[in-house]
Design goal:
Helix 7 runs antiparallel to helix 8 and helix 9 packs antiparallel against helix 10. This protein has 10 helices and 2 strands. Among the domains are: about 50 residues, no CATH class; about 80 residues, Tetratricopeptide repeat domain (Serine Threonine Protein Phosphatase 5, Tetratricopeptide repeat, Alpha Horseshoe). It has a two-stranded antiparallel sheet with strand order 1-2. It has about 240 residues and is mainly α.
Amino acid sequence: PQHVVLYPLVSKSLRNIAAGKDPLEGQRHCCSIAQMHEHYSLGYPDLDELQKNPQPLIFDIEVLKVEPPGSYQQDPWAMTDEEKLQAVPLIHQEGNELYRQGKVPEAAAKYYDAIACLKNLQMKEQPGSPDWIELDQKITPLLLNYCQCKLQCEEYYEVLDHCSSILNKYEDNVKAYFKRGKAHAAVWNVAEAQADFAKVLALDPSLRPVVSRELRSLEARLREKDAEDKIRFKGIFSQ
């Protein structure tokens, strides 16, 4: 055993990885000693204590599983830039296949990984530059697929945020208007849903049957809600 002075920072990174986060989350680009002085707390009491009072450490390593050669897939954070670009189409395909199988949360996780790869590369480019725009155009369809998964998982406010961010950049994106319209309808933002569906029709009139179906569904839900409200309020006033 020996004193491992930098282990608290290493452990924090490993815990971030286990939680599906960036292992360097919250760290600045400076040396490890500076990191330790910069952070009053690492977010874990046991690591804070170890950082203040370094102790001899003994590591027990347990083999959880053995993977056949060629079967291991790197996490996006561990890939080089070139590996990220090569991995994105494969991750996208895996997400599509999971979605076809009805494994929607798993598909969303794949789309998220692909988006994370491209976002990481995009951060290294000047916003608005040709390379930045090219990466953004690759991110957009993945983000729309991710939103489709979130619609089915009934996580509507996340859909609203992502679709709005797309439409702030691409005002003619029909799919973003349509998915945002569905999310607005689901959370009873009636005027906003109607406005988004109207925009869909203006951009692509061929989608009228689909939009009409969504509007009929919204109207039916509104009638049901009005009927329930009348019964509820009648009971209140009759007491």
